[in-house]
Inverse folding.
């Protein structure tokens, strides 16, 4: 009887929780209202079965409780009951699967006029690419991936010259236009997920997956990685800014294309060599390249050493040797993170695509958080 009461409390509590919960899904900001309908159908079907099955158990526990003199009767088969249960279960499972399959089929069939957006996932950051004026994404190959060419664009393919490269975790999109999202990974499994768009898709290394959606509300939405992809997974975040067409066009015009990034890789990225600019660039690189996923600047523990007081410090390696953290040490570490292993830290730092100018900027930024920036040694 205690179990019957407990089950009754669970059923009533679950229904009340659903009605009174403050945790509703985020407001929809894309054309995928069908996703929400599918979720509702799933919730209703599973909810009805949950309530019905538990109430049936409560009823049997009460109806067939032990009574003096009563005897259990054995009924080997009840064809009518079996048929009824098979039909009911079949209807339930079809109601669970069919809407999802229908919506998914539409989800991976973008309209012809959809704008192309490539999302590149890498430990632990997001990059984006647009097709440019010709409407075509240039060919890529892993052979071409380098610090200057993180997308691996084929230099021989003229179609890639006008591709707009967004080496940043924030991307802008025009409102009301269908977007076909093509997903690539540089290293391991990732998953691009923007809850407000009801859109997500696994990113499998070596293949291109896709989906489409139409952003319907202006705003800044957080994109997250929804597939455990290593130590920095929780901080693998990006942003999608949805704005009107004119604002979007102006933003695109400010981005580098493959042609301009190849023509002046350092000048375009580094700008004037003033110290303040280098510091600002270093700060934005720490964000866009995902360094902040593992390195804090406030001294708190992270996956990697905090940058507070790092510069100028004597670091101990796992083999017991020590090394002073100076320009050379940091440069060498960024270029080849697997060459040394610092005591107390897992050897998980990925090799990040950075050119010399960018490494200098990052160095200036790390230095600014050093133990005593004023006495930091001048350039060798
Ligand atoms: Cu990428 Cu988790």
């Amino acid at each position: 009887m205690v179990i019957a009461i407990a089950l009754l409390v669970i059923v009533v509590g679950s229904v009340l929780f659903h009605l009174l919960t403050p945790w509703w899904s985020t407001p929809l900001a894309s054309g995928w209202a069908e996703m929400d309908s599918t979720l509702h159908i799933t919730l209703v079907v599973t909810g009805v079965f949950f309530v019905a099955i538990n109430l049936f158990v409560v009823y049997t526990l009460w109806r067939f409780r032990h009574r003096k003199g009563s005897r259990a009767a054995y009924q080997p088969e009840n064809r009518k009951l079996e048929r009824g249960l098979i039909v009911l279960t079949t209807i339930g499972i079809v109601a669970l699967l069919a809407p999802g399959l229908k919506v998914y089929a539409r989800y991976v069939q973008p309209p012809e006029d959809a704008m192309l957006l490539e999302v590149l996932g890498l430990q632990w950051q997001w990059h984006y690419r647009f097709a440019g004026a010709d409407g075509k994404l240039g060919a890529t190959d892993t052979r071409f991936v380098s610090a200057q060419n993180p997308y691996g664009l084929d230099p021989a393919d003229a179609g890639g010259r006008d591709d707009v490269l967004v080496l940043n975790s924030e991307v802008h999109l025009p409102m009301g236009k269908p977007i076909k999202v093509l997903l690539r990974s540089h290293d391991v499994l990732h998953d691009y997920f923007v809850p407000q768009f009801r859109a997500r898709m696994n990113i499998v290394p070596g293949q291109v997956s896709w989906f489409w959606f139409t952003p319907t509300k202006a705003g800044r939405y957080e994109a997250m990685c929804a597939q455990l992809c290593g130590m920095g997974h929780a901080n693998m975040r990006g942003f999608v800014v949805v704005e009107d067409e004119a604002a979007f066009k102006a933003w695109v015009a400010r981005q580098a294309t493959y042609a301009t990034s190849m023509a002046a890789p350092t000048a375009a990225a580094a700008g004037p060599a003033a110290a303040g600019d280098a510091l600002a660039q270093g700060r934005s690189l720490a964000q866009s390249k995902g360094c902040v996923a593992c390195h804090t600047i406030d001294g708190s523990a992270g996956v990697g050493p905090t940058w507070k007081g790092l510069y100028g410090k004597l670091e101990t390696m796992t083999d017991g040797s020590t090394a002073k953290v100076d320009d050379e040490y940091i440069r060498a570490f960024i270029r080849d993170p697997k060459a040394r292993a610092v005591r107390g830290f897992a050897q998980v730092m990925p090799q990040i695509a950075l050119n010399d100018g960018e490494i200098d900027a990052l160095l200036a930024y790390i230095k600014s958080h050093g133990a005593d920036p004023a006495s930091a040694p001048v350039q060798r």
Remarks:
- The CA atoms of residues 298 and 378 lie 24 Å apart.
- Residues 33-63 form the longest helix (31 residues).
- The chain has three domains: 2-65+78-107, 115-263, 275-375.
- Confidence is low (pLDDT under 50) at residues 265-273.
